[in-house]
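Let us work through a complete example step by step.
Step 1: write down the sequence.
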Amino acid sequence: MNTHDSELALYRAERRVLEIQTKLHRWANDDPHRRFDDLFNLVADPAFLLVAWDRVRNNKGARTAGVDGETARYVEAVRGLEGFLGELRAQLKARTFQPLPARRRAIPKAAGKVRYLGIATIRDRVVQAALKLVLEPIFEADFLPCSYGFRPNRRAHDAVAEIHHFASRSYAWVVEGDGVVAEADDFDVIRIDDVRISRVVDGASARGTLDALDALRTLNSLGTLNALRSLDSRDLPGDW
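Step 2: predict the structure and record it as tokens.
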């Protein structure tokens, strides 16, 4: 496939993904109690996998290999993208996909401490990115504007700016809430009724690709699945 054909295929895939994401978000927003099933077919959809690949390929981590030694460049030059994504799709649809163990890397911290980073393989990162594309529009419907943690197009600086905005207008209290999901199984009770997705999350967590405490949070760069939301305005007393 030449460059022009590749760009056209990606453009069409992005259009399809956006259309489906818009529908998922609308349905989730219209019914706060709606539970979604049969989402796994979207994770294995060629358009979602291609867009997921593009996200992974253009991330600076694409140059870092997991335990299989493969980088994004290796996939393109040696395996071939079409064959790589085709094989991944076949494994997902046949339910034979199994995440590989993470490559552990020690990151030095202050005071001589060390934080261990789990580096997933390229194939596993593509599946995680596809999961994010499917799940993000659903869970985004449940967040309020005052929630900033692990959400797309939001960062800590935005939260600080909002605090500054209110603090300069006579507000005196700042309330920060941080919730984590201790078990990936907890994610089942929120919005998703597709056990196939839960199995992929559980498998990644068990192999160290996703830390148990960060399995859901990581899927939304992954904060869509930060299921125990940051404390929002409905939980605050008085005239917040």
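Step 3: interpret the result. The radius of gyration is 19 Å.
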